[in-house]
Amino acid sequence: MSETFHAFNPSTGAALAAEHPIVSWPELDAMAAASMDAAAALADTDPARIAAFLRACADRLDADRSRIAATAHEETALPLEPRLAQVEFDRMLGQLRQAADAAGDVGPTSWRCPMIDEATNIRSDRGPLGGAVFSIGPNNFPLAFHGVSGGDFAAAIAAGNPVIAKGHPLHPSTGRLLADAVTAAIVDAGLHPATVQYVAHCEPEDGLRLIADPRIAAVAFTGSRAAGLAIKAAADASGTIASLEMSSLNPVFALPGALADPASLAEAWAGSVTLGAGQFCTKPGVLVAIGAGADAFIDAACRRFEAAAPGILLARDGIASLAIGIAAVESSGAVRRCGGHAVEPGFRFEPTLLTVDGATFLDRFEDLATELFGPAGLVVKATDLDEALTIARRLEGQLTATICTGSGDDAGWNALASVLRSRCGRLLENKMPTGVAVVPSMVHGGPYPATGHPGFTAVGVPASIARFTQARCWDGVAPSRLPDWLV
User: Fold this and answer.
1) pLDDT tens profile 438-458
2) Partner residues linked to 198 by β-bridges
3) What is the pLDDT of residue 408?
4) Measured between alpha carbons, how far is 347 from 15 in angstroms, rounded to an integer?
């Protein structure tokens, strides 16, 4: 009999009754074998049918919106309204429908990049990988980033790849409902039954073994740096394509012009740090306040943090990890201005504000420039722009970086942007980075170690689809044997 596990309600800490299977290696091995049959079938499938499948997924999920959103709320304690039932649900459906449009697009400007050289009779395009994409979703977005319904899933399917989707152990009943809708959509579209296969959970060693299996063409992952680096090592050793979104500080640099209105800046930053209990990958966890206005900003931010309700973390382990992280930052020279404690019932934690001067931050950079996953933020008091630039040059790759100029500071912007532009996927001015618009121009990625490589974007169709394609060349091939878009 398979081992099982259950989830918890974060708002109460109580275990939920439903039990879910932990899939063993023989089952994963069988899934990998079935995925090869699905890959062969998809290679000959009309793009319009793949598009129809993605639309059927969206329609099936929408029809069960209330039940899915309520289940996700119980398992994550994320707000039901509007977060899950509206905002995230609509984002999930929108991504699927955008991917459907892209899957059916065989035009000259599509993600397929068709090129026809009449003089040499050589043609090229982009197509599926010939194996499965192992899609692993995160704990903090149970719908829009889920392995069986989120952006990675939609992009992989749009490119014509089968998917083996792994759910997250913190919200397994949600994953089961999502997978049921997708399975029904496979029948609606008449696709191979192994086009999508779902795993509630597996042991880490079995997941890494699957990633290294030659039948797995790519792995898509959103989560912690530790897990992402383990996945990267397995993928690199086997040549598996790895699309990884890991951790990010998402630094904010506040120039004197922005600090001139400390209350407004504090409201924006504190609201972003505490949104979703600080469990967004784009949370601006570090703010570098430049110049004499830093103290007034810190006072205003502290009032905002103290007024905010304790955030509910997704798991009991999250409380321990956050407390350990805060203690480590304090031991490295930061001062805790408010918060810092777990609160009952459930997995609650006080909004926490820490401060440190720029010299100490630079001296203990590796210990202080660390992600605190939860409602916690660090303000670094930089003496001047030169010190802020020194901090900027020390940064690793980030998903986002923000420069708050206030009414405008061209010199400060130019100096910081020249350093930050190559260190982040998305550069913002005078707005917080928490929201990620689902539009073609969005880049939700960034240089390593925010992701596995700087060409990455997990959001934005059609760019996100290219991750799961290979370049193909057709040399002297008869027109009757070519894809329609190359004739």
Assistant:
1) 999 999 999 999 999 999 999
2) 165
3) 79
4) 12
Burial (CB count within 10 angstroms: exposed 0-12, middle 13-18, buried 19+), residue 11: middle
pTM: 0.96
Could you give phi then psi for residue 411, rounded to 5 degrees?
-65, -45
Q: What angle, rounded to 10 degrees, do the helices at 204-212 and 25-43 form?
A: 30
Task: Please give the pLDDT value at position 117.
Answer: 97
How far, in Å, CA of 76 to CA of 237, rounded? 35
Cα gap 333→156, rounded to integer Å = 45
Q: Which of 74, 75, 88, 245 is catalytic?
A: 245
pLDDT beneath 50, residues of the chain: none
Neighbours of 307 (CB within 10 A): 11
The amino acid sitting at 207 is: G
Question: What distance in Å separates the CA atoms of residue 343 and residue 322, rounded to the nearest whole number?
Answer: 13
| Active-site residue flag, 245 | yes
**Six-digit token string for 118:** 């009449």
Phi and psi dihedrals of 299, rounded to 5? -60, -45
Name the helix (H) or strand (E) containing 474: strand 470-475
Q: Which of 388, 384, 383 is nearest to 401 (CA)?
A: 388
Q: What's the DSSP call for residue 263?
A: H
**pLDDT score at 148:** 98
DSSP sequence for 218-239: EEEEES-HHHHHHHHHHHHHHT
Domains of the chain: 4-246+451-486 (3.40.605.10), 252-429 (3.40.309.10)
The runs of H, that is alpha helices, within 192-224 are: 204-212
In the chain, the amino acid numbered 421 is R
Among residues 57, 202, 281, 424, which one is catalytic? 281
What is the identity of the amino acid at 201? Answer: H
Q: Could you confirm whether 281 is annotated as catalytic?
A: yes
Sign of the dihedral defined by the CA atoms of residues 281, 447, 221, 231, in that order: negative
Are the beta carbons of 128 and 161 closer than 8 angstroms?
A: yes
C-alpha 343/C-alpha 349 separation (Å) is 5
Residue 91 Ramachandran class (φ > 0 left, ψ -120 to 50 alpha, else beta): alpha
